[in-house]
Design brief:
Helices cover 38% and strands 24% of the residues. By secondary structure, it is α+β, with helices and mostly antiparallel strands. The strands form three sheets. It has a six-stranded antiparallel β-sheet with strand order 6-7-16-15-12-13. Strands 2-1-3-4-5 form a five-stranded parallel β-sheet, sandwiched between helices. Helix 4 links the parallel strand 3 and strand 4. The termini are far apart.
């Protein structure tokens, strides 16, 4: 019984005609019979091979979507030919349907073990053949589409990884030198982003007139969006021009509270992104030894001194970007030689161990207190070692930044 046209649901006519079927049979009449059935069903790309070896050679030269394989052939039979096809990675997804006059379970079991997906028996029933060809081609098309998607995902992933490496280099490029000595202050820091790039950014820089500025801000969120937002904020801190973020129009250095108000006016949270940030900004005068600082929703700064021990400076205001009319306050602190100011992101105190317990402020206080006798550099490393020990095998859920300053 001939079928004028056979359609695969979800495929256009051109898709059907594009499918290539290889018939492998050492008997010409068998080849012609199968070819006629397939031709009547609308398949225009039909290839034939007289032996298993000819089939293997043809498969190396051209793409094939389906193989109809006779079991009984001289020299290289259909089962061994199928096994060799499946052993080649580039051919492993090509479905093979066995065409056999045998119905013994042993032969069929060997065929399936070799990699065949289905079989039809001789004399071949046209409806059965086309139904099984249909199933095989749908499977092949699905596998081809899956591989195409995986290849596209792989290309996209490679591009994302390249972009992340560029973003990470850009972010590292704006960080201060790891061991700074500025007028009246030494600085040492460690930064561990939880992604390739992070939303934490900080700096320590001379402002002139014997003063040093420093900041640490933490953008809500992680990854590239937070990092790009952080870089846009940081760009304002790089300018020392009069009338800019840090310098008044008459050349005077701005108080930290005025800096925070300017940031809040410029970086109001957008409803689409929901981005805002916390920030600590300070200015240290080496002549008066007075530190002026403002904390906008950021984790409380630590003040460590040999005379008074370690304490949290809890006087803080609203994060930047949440309220357009937020008020910010400038606080002052007198520093003695050897006093340390420690800024940190919430990724430190919120670091969770395997039981879900956070490292917390009290453990951080104790860690900074225990590290006081050590050098500035060693003290930072000791604190982070305790945080890492607390995390254990847990990956950090947020960026971790620790910036320590020491009055000299």
């Amino acid at each position: 019984m001939a079928i004028d046209r056979w359609e695969v649901p979800g495929m256009e006519e051109r898709d059907i005609k594009d499918m290539c079927i290889l018939i492998v049979d050492d008997v010409l009449d068998n080849q012609l019979l199968l070819e006629s059935m397939l031709d009547d069903a609308g398949f225009a790309r039909i290839e034939t091979a007289d032996s298993g070896q000819d089939a293997l050679s043809l498969l190396q030269r051209m793409p094939v979507d389906l193989v109809l394989m006779d079991i009984m052939m001289p020299d290289l039979d259909g089962i061994e030919t199928t096994r060799r096809i499946k052993q080649q990675p580039e051919l492993a997804d090509v479905p093979v349907i066995m065409v056999t006059a045998k119905s013994e379970s042993t032969d069929l079991q060997q065929a399936f073990e070799a990699g065949a997906m289905d079989y039809v028996t001789k004399p071949v029933d046209e409806l059965v053949l086309l139904a099984r060809v249909r199933s095989a081609l749908l499977l092949k098309r699905a596998m081809d589409q899956r591989k195409a998607r995986e290849a596209e995902l792989e290309r996209s992933l490679c591009q994302i990884q390249r972009d992340l490496r560029v973003a990470a280099r850009t972010q590292r490029g704006v960080l201060p030198a790891p061991n700074l000595r500025l007028p009246g202050l030494r600085a040492y820091w460690r930064f561990k982003p939880c992604d390739a790039v992070g939303g934490d950014l900080f700096n320590v820089f001379p402002l002139g007139r014997g003063r040093v500025g420093f900041h640490l801000f933490d953008v809500a969120g992680h990854g590239v969006p937070a990092a790009m937002y952080a870089l846009s904020i940081n760009s304002l801190f790089l300018s020392r021009d009069a009338g800019g973020l840090l310098i008044e129009s008459d050349g005077r250095i701005k108080r930290p509270d005025r800096v925070m108000r300017a940031l809040n006016a410029q970086f109001q949270m957008h409803e689409d992104t929901g981005q805002y940030f916390t920030c600590t900004y300070g200015v240290y005068d080496r002549v008066t030894r007075i530190l002026q600082y403002t904390q906008a929703g950021h984790t409380p700064t630590l003040h460590a001194s040999a005379r008074n021990g370690v304490r949290l400076l809890r006087d803080g205001d609203m994060p930047v970007g949440l309220l357009p009319d937020a008020e910010y306050t400038c606080h002052e602190l007198s520093l003695e030689t050897g006093d340390r100011i420690v800024l940190y992101s919430d990724g430190i105190v919120e670091a969770e161990n395997e039981r879900g317990e956070q490292f917390g402020e009290q453990r951080l206080l104790a860690a900074v207190r225990d590290a006081l006798p050590a050098s500035l550099e060693a003290s930072v490393e000791q604190v982070l070692e305790q945080v890492d020990h607390w995390l254990g095998r847990q990956a950090p859920l947020d960026d971790m930044t620790l910036l320590a300053l020491e009055a000299i």
